[in-house]
Amino acid sequence: MRILLLLCVLFLSEINAVAAGKSTGVPRYDQAVAAGVRYLKSQAGNIPEKETTLVAYALVKAGEPFDNELIQHGVRDALERAEKGHSGYDHIYLSGVDALLLSEVDPEEHLPALQKIADYVASKQHPNGGWSEGANNSDTSMAQYGMLALWAAKGAGATISPEVVERNVAWHLANGTPDGSWGYRPEGSNVLPSHNLSMAGAGSMGIGRLLLHGPKNKPQQAAAAEKKFGVLEKVGNEPVDPSQDGFKDYRPRIASDTIDARITRAFNWIDARYPPPQNSGGTVYFPYYFFYALERAAALYDLKEVNGKNWFEAYGDVLLTMRNAEGVFDRGSKQYSSATIGTSFAILYFMRSTQQILDKQFGAGLMMAGRDPSKLFGGGKEKKKEIGPLDELLKAMEKANFEELENFDSEALVEKIQFGSKEELIGQVDTLKKLLKNPDPANRQAAYFALGRTGDFSLIPEMIQGLRDPSLDVNVEALMALRYIARKPTGFGISLDPLEGPPVTSEEQKLVRANNWRTKAFQTWSKWYATVRPYDQQGGLDELEALVPAQ
C-alpha cells in the first residue's frame, strides 16, 4: 500500500491531473467555490446578457463541463457579439471576457471570432494607447480587458499588432500616480489611486510584458549564483521564443526592466495598504473586482508575498469574509455589480484563473504531482527529508525496486529532479535513457521529465519519440520536455490536454481524440526539428525515419 500511495503521489495520471487542475489546493476555498457554482447554476434563466460570458468563464475555470447550458449560453452570446460587433459602454469589457471564454472552450473552432474581437479592440484604441467607452479620457479599468482580449486571441492563434500592445504599456507608464498606483481616468479629474486600479494597471502591464518580452523571471533567479531548472523558470532576462510569446522580428522600445519596475511599484503600493477595503465605498468602488485583478497581476508577475504573507491565502481569507450566509458574494453597488458578477469574480480568484492559463501555456509537469498548490506561493518551507544521491534513486527506478524507496519523502523525490543541479542530471543521461524503455509508464514519465530538465538540445529526437508512447501521461511529459528544451513555451499550439475539446463519453471516442492529438504533436514537432537540428546531429536512418511525419 505504501508503494502504491507513493506512486500515486509522485506521478501524474489523467484523472489526478484533471482533479488537481480544478482544485484551489485549499479546502476552505474549494468549499467556497462549490457554493458559488451552485448559486450561479441556480440563476439559469435570470442572468442578464452582459453577464452571461463572465458567469460561463467562471464555471469553466471551476471545472464545469463545456456542455453546461450556462456555458453554452455564454458561448452563443460571445459568438453573436463577435459577429455583430460590440457596442455600448461595456464594449471593451465584454470583448475581453468573450475572448477569454471562447479561447478556453475551443480556441481552434472559435479562432475566426477571436480574430474579429482582436481587430475590434485594436480599432477602438485611442492614439495614446488607452481605451474608453468612446472618445472620452482613457479608462484604466477598461484597458485591462482590452489587453485580456488581445492576449486571449493571440494565444488562440489570432494576429494582433505589437504596436497596439506597446502603446498601452506606454499609456500606463505615462499616466500612473506618483506613489505607484493608477487612477480610474488618469487623463482627467478622476485620478485618485485605488486597490482596484492599482491591480488593473499591474495586470495590463503584466500582459504587455509577457507579449513583448516573454514571462518575467522569478525574482530570486536574477541574483542566484546557481540557477534551478523548473518548468516555469527561465535563465537570464532574455525573452522566450519571440514567435511564440512575443512578436517575431519586432523589437520593443520599452525595456522589460522598465515594465518590471513599474509593476513592482504597484505591488509596493498595495503592500503598504493591506488589507483592502471590504465594503462598497461609494457608487464606483466594487470590492470583488479587486481580487480577480490581483490574481491576474500576481500570476503574471510571479508574486510571492504581500505584507510578508502568502498573497493567495492572505487575500483569499479576506475574500471569504465577503459572502452572505448562503455563500454568495453579493456586496457592492448594484449600479455596477450584481451577486452573479461578485460570485464569478470570487471563483476566478480562488481558482487562480490566470495561473491556469499560464500553466496550460508553459506546463506544470511532475513538479505539481501530489503537491498542495498553495505551497508554491511562498509557503511550505518545512524541512524535507534527505533522500540520497540521484544515481541511487534512478537505479532503484530502473530495477522497479520500489521497496528501496520506502523511506523517501514523496515531495523530496520530485524536488530531487526538479531542483537538482543540471550537471547532475546530465551525468545520468544514459541511465535516464534506459528508463525510457522501462515497462512502467510512471518510470518513463519521470525519465522524460528529468531529461527535459537537462536542457540538452541533442535529446529532442528522444523527446519526439515520447509523443508516440502508448501512455498519455508519458506523451504529455515528453511534450513539456520539448517545450522546455526548445524554449517554445506554447508548443506550437499543441495543448497539454490530449482530450481537450467538447466532452466525449465513449472510450472509443476518447481513443480517437488521443490518437489524433498524438499524430498532430508528432508531426508538428518533427517538422520543426527537421528545420533546426544541427548539422552534426543529422544522419542515421533511425533518426531520419523518426522525423518523417506519419501518413
* Poorly predicted tracts of residues: 1-21, 218-244, 280-284, 365-388, 400-414, 416-423, 539-551
Q: Total domains, how many?
A: 2
Give the quaternary arrangement of the chains: single chain
Strand order within the widest beta sheet: 1-2
What structural class results from the helix and strand content?
Answer: mainly alpha
Q: Outline, from the CA principal axes?
A: globular
Order of helices and strands: HHHHHHHHHHHHHHEEHHHHHHHHHHHH
Mean pLDDT: 77
Residue share in helix: 55-70%
The CATH class of the largest domain, by name, is: Mainly Alpha
Alpha-carbon distance between the two ends: 44 Å
> What radius of gyration results from the CA coordinates?
23 Å
Observed structural traits:
two-stranded antiparallel sheet; Glycosyltransferase; mainly alpha; Leucine-rich Repeat Variant; disordered C terminus; 56% helix; 551 residues
